[in-house]
Amino acid sequence: MNMRLIKDERGQATVFMALCLAIFLFGFFALAIDAGMLYHQKRLAQTAADAGALAAAAGESSGVNITSSAQTAATQNGLTLGTGKGQATVTAALLNSGSSLGYVQATVTIHSPTVFLGMVNPSFNPMNITASAEASYTISSNACFTALSPNGSAVPNASGVETDGSTSMTWNTTVMSDIATEGNSQIKAPNCGIQACGPSTSTYGSGSGKTGAALYAWGSGNITAESNTAPSYGTDNSGSKITTTPTLGSCSGDPMAGKMPTAPTAGSCIDPSWMKNNTAGGAAETISPGTYCNFNTSNVSTLTMQPGLYVITTTFSTNSGTTITGNGVTIYLANGVIANSGNYTYVSGGATPYGVGNGTTLNISAPTSGPYAGIAIWDGNSSSTTPDTFTFGGGASSTFTGTIYAPNTNLVLGNGSGTSTMSSSIVANTIMVLGGSTIQNGYSAGGGAGNGGVNLAE
């Protein structure tokens, strides 16, 4: 009987099927474990990518390296950086940007270990699980001095320059610059940046008699800002300094482009006899908003400007010794008001035929609401090839709050000793601080990533 049982083959198929089914079920069970692990890793990678993209966008908007920002966010979400099993690789890249929004992409790859798949094929252990995310950030310039000229204008009196940190001095040449100090003048911008768009040192060929220093401190002048960006920079050897050391880079352009309101339209001309004929006799005057053909404060002791919009259509000139006060004021200089290059040439220590005269005390603040909110002075010159020249004279202490928007105008800030305290974003063709003046700009950009400027895009 025992022999018959041993030789009996009935039921073998059942045992074989049971063994196959057990292996099959074990395979499904192991595959389910791997799939569950990989799904969990995929969700972890996506979470880290989302956080990394937001961190990279915030980093880019504030000048911090985007890859390190994304990696920090990934580690804060439980990942360990590296290429080994169980570790993750995190990268970030800038994408194409629009006029107001920039985009970054963060990519997270987790090198996930497996159980069953690795037994079937060693190349599946680890499995690379990748997720990516895109985030946008608001493009807002922190610059409070922006000069847009690609070629610059001549710095008065300057004849020598050490370019881009070199100790080799170029002598007997005209120095072309976008932003410059001369004659012991000072630019102080502790909470904001300075951006000069040109020129580069290669702009002017050999033998041209010109050299470029887009950001330039001359004659014991100093430039101090939270950040400095320019395609070139320079000082002379009189002890002039630029702090912080400029970053050599291309210009991001006009930060106000596309953000300005519709330009004002001139109305009926208001032309007070005392303003037109210079017969004020040292009296105090008060004016109301409107269109003025000629703005002239000769022999006016104090001028009070009522809140509102002032459109100037012909000339703008103030007198030495006049105090001008205006809260909630926007001054719009209509196209052609300020002299073009043939009518005004800077002379060291000279008078100011167009602009704010030497010795004028100017206490102006921009409106805080309405269509011209934040705009104090707007030069409407429409020609980039024939820039105006507008001077804020020195020799007196002034306070000024609000944007100065003059993209096609050469601004001269100061033409004599004195300190002007500003809280202004200034956009001009070129900006010169001359004659020992000090410009203290306390502007600090608002908004930014911390106030809703960063959003997950994809």
How much of the polypeptide forms β-strand, as a percent range? 35-45%
- The separation of the N and C termini measures 76 Å
**Which overall shape is indicated by the principal axes computed on the Cα atoms?**
elongated
Q: How many structurally independent domains?
A: 2
Largest sheet: 26 strands, mixed
Could you estimate the helical fraction of the residues in percent?
Answer: 10-25%
Which residues form runs of ≥5 with pLDDT under 50? 339-353, 446-452
What number is the mean pLDDT? 81
- Tally the helices: 5
Q: What is the strand and helix layout of this fold?
A:
Blueprint: H1 2-7, H2 12-62, H3 66-76, E1 88-94, E2 101-112, H4 116-120, E3 127-138, E4 143-147, E5 153-154, E6 161-163, E7 169-170, E8 174-177, E9 179-181, E10 186-196, E11 210-212, E12 215-217, E13 222-230, E14 233-235, E15 241-243, E16 247-248, E17 269-270, H5 273-277, E18 284-287, E19 290-296, E20 302-305, E21 308-317, E22 323-327, E23 329-333, E24 355-356, E25 361-365, E26 375-379, E27 388-392, E28 398-401, E29 403-415, E30 418-423, E31 426-434, E32 437-441, E33 454-456
Parallel strand pairs: 4-10, 4-31, 8-11, 9-12, 9-31, 10-13, 10-32, 12-14, 13-15, 13-16, 17-19, 18-20, 19-21, 20-22, 21-23, 22-25, 23-26, 24-27, 25-28, 26-29, 27-29, 28-30, 29-31, 30-32
Antiparallel strand pairs: 1-2, 2-3, 3-33, 5-8, 6-7, 6-14
